[in-house]
Structure formats: C-alpha cells, structure tokens
From TrEMBL:
InterPro entries: DUF3887 (IPR024981). Gene3D superfamilies: 3.10.450.590. Keywords: Signal. Residues 37-126 form the DUF3887 domain. This is DUF3887 domain-containing protein. It comes from Enterococcus ureilyticus.
Length: 129
C-alpha cells in the first residue's frame, strides 16, 4: 500500500508542476485531447482499468501498474456515486504534454481529473481530486 501511495504522490507532484503554467492550444487539438481524456475517464468509470492502462506511456507504467492504479482510483470513484456528466474541460500545453482538466459530476460529488497526454497520445500523468 505504501508503494501505491508513493506512486500516487509522485504522480500528483508531477501533475502539479505540469499544470502550473501552460500555453493555450487550438480548438482541434483541444477537442482531440479532451476526447482522449474523456475516453480514459469513461473506461475507469466502467471499471475497465486494463483498457485504460493500455493508454499509459511506458514511463507512466513504470510508476503505476494497472493493479495499483485500480487500488488507488476505485475507492474514490465508489465514494462519488454513479457518473453523470463532464461539466467542464480545459486543455493547455506544457512542454511536450497536453494537460487536460475535466470537471466530472457524479451523483454524490464532483471530481476533477487532471490528465497529462504526450504527443503520441499516451497518458503521462493522472490525478483525481
């Protein structure tokens, strides 16, 4: 469990750095990256962690395997209740990553997903708050 928590904290710190400042992206790229992030959120909402982790970069998989990803995320989503909709999304580019922030509404509470996607459309970072 400590390893899972350590991995999640490492990812969180990386995400905080990535989201600190970024440049705006064009509408086409924004739509493409938002769709990719929403696909990942849909997969985890459906409990399909295997399929979601197929989109992870090699670097991300070194830090957080599928089983640990599920252990970290599933309890948070269970507490939130059934997924309803994505209320808001933003996309910025920071270095070679697109940082997508999705505000998702669940039955019991809202969750904010911050997902970093590289130029090969692989997930480099994932954070849920």
């Amino acid at each position: 469990m400590k390893k899972v928590l350590s991995s999640v904290i490492t990812i969180l710190i990386g995400m905080t750095i990535l989201t600190a400042c970024g440049e705006k992206v064009d509408q086409e790229t924004s739509n493409k990256m938002t769709a990719k992030a929403e696909e990942i959120v849909t997969l985890i909402n459906d409990g399909n962690y295997d399929k979601a982790s197929e989109s992870f970069s090699d670097k991300m998989l070194e830090q957080l395997n599928r089983a640990d990803f599920e252990k970290a995320i599933a309890p948070v989503l269970e507490k939130s209740g059934p997924f309803e909709t994505v209320d808001k999304s933003t996309v910025e580019k920071k270095d070679n990553f697109y940082v997508v922030v999705l505000v998702a509404k669940y039955e019991k509470e809202k969750r904010v997903f911050t997902i970093s996607i590289n130029e090969k459309e692989k997930i480099e970072g994932f954070f849920i708050k």
